[in-house]
Specification:
Length: 189
């Protein structure tokens, strides 16, 4: 029975890693510093909100490892260690931290998640908000160190152009999490 549960957990982790990778195929160049609009950040935070902290972060970690070994899973179909050490590399570390924190706040999925209460919806909303904010924490100083640009320049190029889109993605993450958590709980119990 324990092996069956671990197998199902592994399948969910791999599934979310694959969904994150698939998010690379929807990439719209935006911002003056070469950052693209992608669905990957949303799916990373969604993985934490749906699977919980450890398993959600594991899905992001698996995605990052796939990209590090050269698979074209990063934005724009890129792969390799060079991407992780480029000015946008900080976003990938932020994806991991964002999923971990969002998952810790959301907690592991439970069958009781089927009943949506205001408190439960607010917890998921807080988890998603924290995840989206935290993904920028390593991205900004990383980009500053790699480009030599000021905080204001990095904020203008790496954050400001994406705030409206991230807000929309955060709202979608909340709605999807409220729908998917009971489904995940049924299989992960």
């Amino acid at each position: 029975m324990a092996d069956s549960k671990k197998t199902v957990q592994s399948v969910f982790t791999a599934l979310f890693a694959a969904l994150i990778a698939a998010g690379a195929f929807i990439s719209i160049p935006a911002g003056p510093l070469g950052v693209s609009i992608v669905l990957q950040n949303m799916i990373c935070i969604l993985s934490g909100c749906v699977l919980g902290g450890i398993q959600g972060a594991a899905a992001v970690g698996l995605f990052i490892m796939a990209g590090a070994i050269g698979l074209p899973v990063f934005a724009g179909g890129k792969g390799g260690f060079a991407v992780l050490f480029s000015p946008v590399g900080g976003f990938y570390y932020g994806y991991f931290l964002g999923a971990l924190v969002a998952g810790i706040i959301a907690g592991k999925p439970s069958l009781s998640d089927k009943k949506i209460t205001i408190t439960y919806a607010l917890k998921i909303a807080l988890a998603a908000l924290a995840g989206f904010v935290i993904l920028y924490i390593p991205a900004i100083p990383w980009a500053m160190s790699k480009t030599g640009k000021s905080f204001a320049a990095i904020f203008a190029g790496y954050v400001a152009p994406f705030l409206i889109g991230d807000f929309i993605k955060m709202c979608a993450t909340i709605a999807l999490s409220l729908f998917l958590r009971p489904v995940a709980a049924r299989y992960l119990k």
